[in-house]
Amino acid sequence: MHYAFDMWMTREHPGCLFERYADDIVVHCDTERQARNLRDFIADRLATLGLELHPEKTKIAYCKDASRQRGDPEHTSFDFLGYTFRGRVARGPRGLFVSFSPAISAHAKKAGGQKIRAWHLNRRSGTDLSSLAEEINPQVRGWIGYYGAFYRSELYSLALRIDQHLVRWAMQKFKRLRGKPIRAWEWLNAVRQHQPKLFAHWHLLPPIQDRLVGAV
User: Fold this and answer.
1) 0.70 cut: is pTM over it?
2) Backbone torsions φ then ψ of 161, nearest 5 degrees
């Protein structure tokens, strides 16, 4: 793609900035007309090489924010590298405003949830809590390091999901907690108070007693 796209764009359309990772590409245009024309040019270029644009992923998105409010475009967001770019409320020197910004995408959140389920923590009652933390923390730190660069609060649901699975683990591990989710949450909260750095995601969450403990 370096010669098929990058060099061609630099030569033929030097005024259009773009980002590419593998075959995922975002191209910046000033107007919708320019974007539609460029999409056709790119399609023609790829066709000469036996390639084609993805029929579902390829779209023209209007980066609607506080300063761009014209019309009612079909698309006002797009996904790129695990992020969803769209208008979001942000705080500036003059108060709140809408900024076109990235945050972890719904697809990436779903993939993270699937990964958490694949750990099967509740089946590992023979393992202690420190061993579980040692195993999952590298993965969790990776998520926080990558997706936490923007709107870290969007990672709250994944962090809560991990604690829900830890509560299930505790109810399997300790007879006194079996069938008692509220007491299991209280137990996990006590562990967190004594060892707040045990799990990499704990600093993202409010105190456990402030959450809905019934969602186990």
Assistant:
1) yes
2) -60, -40
